Amino acid sequence: MAKVVHAACPLNCWDSCGFKVTIEDGRVTKVEGDDEHPITKGKICGRGRMLEKRINSGERILHPLKKINGEFQQISWEQALDEIAIKLTEYKEQYGTTSVLHSHDYANGGLLINLDQRFFNCYGGVTEVTGSICWGSGIEAQSWDFGDAYSHAPGDLMNSKSIVVWGRNVARTNMHLYEELKKAQKSGAKLYVIDPIYNATAKIADQYISIKPGFDGFLAAGIIKEIVRLELEDREFIHNYSLGFEDLLSTLEKVSLTEISQFTEIPEETITQLARIYAERPVATMFGLGMQRYANGGNTIRLIDALVAVSGNVGIPGGGANFANRQVGQSFQIDTLTLSERKTASRSFTMMKQAEGILTAKDPEIKMAFVTCGNPLTQLPDTNKARTAFSSLETLVVMDQFMTDTAELADYILPVTSAFETEDVYYASMYHHFVNHGPKLVEPRGEAKTDEEIWRGLANRLGFGEDFAYTREEWLNLGLSSLKDYGITIEHLRENKFAELPVDKIPWQNRKFKTPSKKYEFTSGLGKEAGFTGEITLKMPAESTWSNQSLAEKYPYSLLSIHPLRSNHSQHFHVLGTVPEVKVEVSEDIANEKGLENGDIVKVWNNRGNIHGKISILKMAHPKTINIDEGMWRRFGGSVNQLTSDRESDNKLGSTVFDCLVNIEKV
Ligand code: SF4
Q1: Centroid of ligand 1 to alpha carbon of 33 (angstroms)
Q2: HSE of 69, CA atoms in CB hemisphere, 13 A
Q3: C-beta of 45 in contact with ligand 1 (< 6 A)
Q4: Contacts of 58 (CB under 8 A, 6+ apart)
Q5: pLDDT band at 1 (very low <50, low <70, confident <90, very high)
Q6: Is the CB of 9 under 6 A from ligand 1?
Q7: Which of 62, 70, 234, 667 is 20 to 30 A distant from 138 in Cα terms?
Q8: Pocket test residue of 12, 13, 51 for ligand 1, highest count of atoms within 8 A of CB
Q9: Which architecture does CATH list for 65-130+333-426+434-500?
Q10: Per-domain boundaries in the chain
Q11: 44 CB within 6 A, ligand 1
Q12: Global pTM?
C-alpha cells in the first residue's frame, strides 16, 4: 500500500525544497515537490527527484569495507570501528591529534551533520580545513564590507525597480528565484543579466550584458565611476553610514573608463547606462558564485558591494547585495552541537590547499584523513595533486554511500544512511529562510549507519562516549534550542513540516552593520585585522592576457566550470540512467577558429593537466570562453579540476577554479 509523506531536500542547493515522498513496501518509490511549501510550492528539480534513484541504487555501499592488498573486503562494524579507534589513539599518542585531517564539504544540508566537528573537538582538535572552494571569497568579502553576508527574503524582489542577476544562472541552480524573476518582470521590474554565457536566465532578461570572465569587479568599478561622475551617488548613506569612501575614490582614479571597457569587453555606453539604472533605486543585485572563484575574487565582490552601497541600494526594500543568507544557518545552536571548547590543539589548511598541506605538513605530518560529506578527489582544484596527496596518507577513512573517486582510494569506507533513512532538519544559508523537516521514512539499507551512530561508536571506544549519549530527538532539540522561544522545536517541525526562521527580511535596514565601526566599510577593519590593507584593490585575475601575457599566448581561452544541470556537484552522475560524458562547451569564435562542430572530440589542456570531451557550441557566449561542468567522476571522463589551480583568492579563503586559461584541439 503506497503512502505519501512529507520530507525535505538534503542537497547543497539554494532552494532547500519541501518534498512529498511516496513509500511502497518500505521503499521510497517517488520524490515530488510539496505544493504546501511556501517558497518551493511543489516544484523541484531533477536532482531532487533522482534522490529516489540514489537511495535504491544497486551501487550503494551497504557494508563497511576495508582495503586489504589493494582490494576492498567487507568487514563488520565492530572491526571497522575498533581498528579506526585504535589508529586514532595511536596517532594521537605518537604524533598528536593534528596528525589527523578532517576533510569535509557540504554534501548534505542537515543540522546533525555538524556532529562531525563535535567528534573531532572531543578527540582533541584535528587539522581542519577553512574557507571554501565554492563561496569562500565572497563570504569573506561581505564580512569585511557589511560584517556578514545576508540576503533579502525572496518576495522582496516585488519591490525592485530593476534586478541585476550578476554571474548566476538561476534557471539551472535556483529555480524558484527564476520564477520570482518572471513574476517581478510581470509587475514591471526590468531584469538585467551580466554573464559570460548567454544562459537560460539571460534569455528571459530585458537586457543581456556579455562580460569577459574574471573582470566583473572592473565593471562594478566603472559603474561606480560613472555614478560619481554623474553625481548620482547616495550621499546621505555614504556620509552617515559608511567608512572609507575617499579610499575607494582614490582607487578608482587609477583606472579610466576606457581601460575598464577594454578589460571587460563591454562598451562604455553600457557602463554609463548601468550607472543610471543603479541610481534609479531600488535595484536588487543577485550575485552568482563563479565570479569570486578568481585570484581577484574577494575584491570583485567588494567592488560590487561598493556599487550597491554607493548607489544607495543597501538596506532598502527591493535592494540588497544578495550573495548569501548566513542569517539562516546562524539561527541554530551550532556551538552547543559542536563543543568547540573541547579542542586543545588546532591547525588548519585552507580547503584549496589541503592537498598541498597533506604533502608538506611537518610537526606533525598528516598521517590520517577522515573524509565526510565530500569527494575531494573530484572537487578539489588540481585533482592530480589531490590524488598524489590523498594516496600518500597512511590511513584514509571515507564516509559515503557510493564508490566515489575519493572512496576508491580509502583504506576504510563507512557506509552512511541517505537523508530518507534518518530524521534531520534541513536548511540552506543561500536563499530563503525556511527550515524543513526531514523525517525518517524507511529503514537504512544494508548495514548503513547514520553519521551520528558512527561518531558515537568511535566516541565510546575513545573514552568520550558521554558526549555522544543523546537520542536523535535530543540532538535535534539541542540544535534547535535557540529557536524554542519562537516555537520552533522538533515537535513543531514534525507537525508543520517547515517553519519560518526569525531573520531580517530586509537586512541592514537599521543601518547598523556588524563591522568593527558598525558602519558599511569601504575600507575594512576586519581586513586590516586579517593582515591586509583593508582597502579595495583593482586586481586582475591571475590568468589573463593583462596579467600574464606569455601564459595567455600559450593558453588563450578562459575555462569556466559551472554547476552541472543534472547533478548536485558530483552526487548524481552515476544515477543519471545514461552514461555521462564530458561536454566541452565553447564560444562560437573558438569553434570557427579551430574548425570545431558539435559532437567533435577535443582535448582541453594546460600545464596542470588535460581532459577529453565532446564539443557543444555555445550560442552568443563571450568570445574565447570554454565551459566544462564540474563534478564529473573519473570513470566517466574525469573532473575538470584536473585543469584548475589550487591557488587561493586574494582574501585567502576562496578558490580560483574559474581563473584558468587553457588551450583546445580536436583529436
Ligand atoms: S536540488 Fe535544489 S532545486 Fe533541486 S530539489 Fe533539491 S533543493 Fe530543490
Answers
A1: 9
A2: 0
A3: yes
A4: none
A5: confident
A6: yes
A7: 234
A8: 13
A9: 3-Layer(aba) Sandwich (3.40)
A10: 65-130+333-426+434-500, 137-326+507-529, 549-666
A11: yes
A12: 0.97
